[in-house]
Amino acid sequence: MAEMHPLRSDDQIPSESFSCLNQEAVKLAQSCEQTTVPSLDHLRMSDYNVVYEPSDDTFLMLDALAHEFDNENLKRMKNVKYVLELGCGTGVSTIFLGMLMKKAKLDPKVGARLFATDINQDALRVTRETAEANEILDILETHQCDLATPLLKELEHKCDVIIFNPPYVPTPDDEVGSDGIEASWAGGKDGRVVFDRAVPQIARLLSWPHGTAYIIAVDDNKPEEIASLMMREYGIIVKPFFRRRARNEFLSVLKC
Fold it and tell me: 0.90 cut: is pTM over it?
């Protein structure tokens, strides 16, 4: 969630090589037109009191997904069967990919499926309503749970795309883990408490060898450390893919 917090300290300044990757990600984001958000006209102001309203991080994720899978890259959707979003909020990122699946006119026999999880039951309600409004409810499953815990066995090594916009704002650890809207931003120490718990699940769920995760991070989360961790523990390459300044911070989509 895009929240205001202090700028990074000296120990968060990336290496020269990672800084170059950041610069490339900034240029790529700048080169792309802003993506149209799936329709949210059905939602009411009261919904945004209980579910995270799409913001800068959401829009950056949508732009990254559009660059990967829309327009001249729409053919890539033919290789996407299972999409999973952890902590779906309004579900617009998953629904956007579902709309691209239908745009690509995938063979119904392929059995493409979208999975959205959230600890907040209102988020799942809103996601279903948004899917219905955008005519992709028939391929969507929602699950109220922590991360993807109950889906690990069913989806092990099957997820072609994983989307994760975690609660990344550094907060006291005791603020993490509610089942309300606070869960969308409270990230604990370095904004990494939920993210670090999700890493083993993401590694287990990604299809091999082409499955890809797209994860929102800010510099406070120490993304270079994240990249080192995922390579060391799981052999997964992580690099900044899209990057954009939002108020007092830089948001990145990490591609894994």
Answer: yes
